Amino acid sequence: MLIQLTDIKKVFNQGRPNEFWAIQGVSLDFEPNRVSCLKGASGSGKTTLLSMIGCLSRPTSGRIQLGERMISSLPERFLTDVRRHTFGFIFQRFNLIPGLSVLENIMLPAYPLGLPYKRLVATALHLLEQFNLSTKADNPVEWLSGGEAQRVAICRALINDPQILIADEPTANLDSKLSHEFMGLIDELCQSGKTILITSHDPEVFDSAVVDRVVEMHDGVVLT
Amino acid sequence: MMWLFLRKQKHLIDYTLSSLLRRMGKSLGLLAVYTLIVFMLASVTLFTHALRKEAGLMLQASPEIIVQRMQAGRHALIPADYLQRIGRLRGVTQKEGRLWGYYYDPAVKANYTIMTAGQVAAPLTEIIIGTGIARARGLAVGDYLTLRSQNGEAFSFEIAALLDEKSELVSADLLLMSPQVFRRLFNVPEGFYTDLVLSVRNPREVRKVVEKLTLLLPDTRPILREEVLRTYDSVFSWRQGILFVLLTGSILAFVSFAWDKASGLSAEERREIGILKAVGWETADVMRMKFWEGMIISLSAFMIGYLAAYAHVFYASASLFEPVLKGWAVLYPQFRLTPFVDGLQLATLLFFTVLPYIVATIIPIWRTSITDPDAVMR
Lengths: 224, 378
Known about the structure:
The complex is a heterodimer of chains A (224) and B (378).
Chain A: E1 3-12, E2 20-30, E3 35-39, H1 46-53, E4 61-66, E5 69-70, H2 76-86, E6 87-90, H3 102-107, H4 117-130, H5 146-158, E7 164-168, H6 176-191, E8 195-200, H7 203-206, E9 213-218, E10 221-222
Parallel strand pairs in A: 3-8, 3-9, 6-7, 7-8
Antiparallel strand pairs in A: 1-2, 1-4, 4-5, 9-10
Chain B: H1 2-22, H2 24-59, E1 65-71, E2 74-76, E3 78-79, H3 81-86, E4 92-98, E5 100-105, E6 110-116, E7 126-129, H4 131-137, E8 144-148, E9 154-162, H5 168-171, E10 174-177, H6 179-186, E11 192-193, E12 195-200, H7 206-216, E13 220-224, H8 225-263, H9 267-278, H10 283-314, H11 322-325, H12 343-369
Parallel strand pairs in B: 6-10, 7-9
Antiparallel strand pairs in B: 1-2, 1-12, 1-13, 3-11, 4-12, 5-6, 7-10, 8-9
Helix pairs in contact in B: 1-10, 2-8, 2-10, 2-12, 8-12, 10-12
């Protein structure tokens, strides 16, 4: 599914003394089944852009099109629906919910779909098996190592079988070995038909052979 | 479609339960305080309601009209010939004079209510006493009790029997003796009564009888049974009101505590809501989840609190509120109220305890959950 951004602008605190233009007219296309990386220093606007693509926030102006569907003007309810069925998110700090087990964390995005519990568990266990975490299913997430937590975050992102996977600074909390492993997983996911969007300022990511396209950003504009 | 909806609710409830377990300390603290408040409010309402009902049932057997003679605005003895002056009033089935009074016993610093019961305590030297007096004075059947008359003369009575414990609500401080001894003890001359009582067969005729009585005996004041009932009612309502006022402080404390605990979202909770929204939960899902959380806590607290109050009132004689609700007496009656639950009362209590809590939790959650979840990305 092609993602098209047309003249996207995002301003925070508009009309106030602390008004801040995070994105200043970005137009971009992201090809399906590719790994694209938004590269840039902290504050360059890559996370803001990714959150708008993932329907986590709205642009101040401009259009975001997902395939044939214009998503930038959708009401909240439909936006959630798009987010739920189209995107899977891997956050920088993984954002797993402490106190819940690995299995419960993975099933979390699927709860509102009302699928039978047995089917949910089976899907989650299958994902855990795929990512070599079957033995950790009942463990609380606090017990996991950084690499394991990230793999759980990937499983959670995949539970609703999304077409697009969004990863925000996914290797920020990993050492180089784990970062390398992560890119291997990303490659596998891309091979399986997923579109991957990553933000990173880690050379381990944007210099990786797995990444098909690197978009450099600086102060809210695209450089390359 | 229905199954889908139900399954979704089940998943949300499962998640809510695991959330509550994750915050075990906070959840238990909230549940305990909430339960305590429901317990206190329910105890007061159950007790006063049952008491009113009990009083109503007992007064059903009392005469429809009491006639008291008034002198200088005060209750005075009524001549026996007033019974003849009343004559044959249409609707009045029975009329008789009563002798009763109060006796202060310095030994226990309590007032007894003394009444006459010709047939029950006929012998001059025997009396029947209420169980409250028996407890206070440590008396049993066969023991003797000495009372002093107005002129200082001592009268010694043998306890012939104790009044039935079932009627203790009204008979705890009651002492029954023969009319002759009563007259000597209180210096009430023959040909006078304390008041007169009339029975009226048809309740619709009571007002008419009273009108006639007022014309016939202008120096008397007829008191209707329904007025006595109303007085009981207002006394219990007043006491209930006092307790509610006393409880207001704790209720307010609870409200602020509940508000703070249930709606004062910590950074961790706000982050959790952000995560849930980011992974695909709708605002409505988050609110439903919080609604279930509110329901689980408030309904559990309500049920536990109400059942505890039920046991407290009907099986432990409301021991915590006894001094306020039963009245300021030395001879507290010990009685078991007949268990009685009023649907409207239950619904009112539910409305005032469960609903505010749910509303208090939902609104701030809604405010948090309508914001964009992109903060989670940062």
